[in-house]
Amino acid sequence: MIMTTTPSIEGSRITKYVGLVTGEAIIGVNIFRDIFARITDIVGGRSSAYEKELGKARHMAYQEMEAAAAHVGGNAVVGVDIDYEVIGNSMLMVAVSGTAVVVDTE
Predict the structure, then answer these.
(1) Concatenated DSSP letters for 6-23?
(2) Cα–Cα distance for residue pair 89/97, rounded to 1 Å
(3) How far is CA 36 from the centre of its chain?
(4) Residue 104 CB: number of other CB atoms within 10 A?
(5) Helix, strand or coil, per DSSP, at residue 89
(6) Could you give the CA distance from residue 53 to residue 86 in angstroms, rounded to a whole number?
(7) pLDDT at 81 > cutoff 60
(8) CB distance 5 to 81 below 8 Å
(9) Which residues pair with 94 in a beta bridge?
(10) pLDDT for 18-64, tens place per residue?
């Protein structure tokens, strides 16, 4: 399924706007990753532990949105927006939304 941040899909014609679809994922980060991330914050560099968890959450949110689009009869999602939030000290939330559409496949 095509998912894009743009309002249209180049080379394809949108024949029907089905509706708003969303996907959310909230994941916990364990205390050991949190400790290592804080050390990384102090000495500098990237926290690969958080990056991996954030990647997992983003993937889950996109999968959920794709399933929601298919459920309402869409074969693509346009205008995709992604938001990240930290809940408490150890929860990461990823929320994605977009408009499910039907595009010509010919």
Answers:
(1) SSS-TT--EEEEEEEEEE
(2) 25
(3) 25
(4) 11
(5) coil
(6) 12
(7) yes
(8) yes
(9) 25, 84
(10) 999 999 999 886 645 555 555 555 555 566 667 777 888 999 999 99
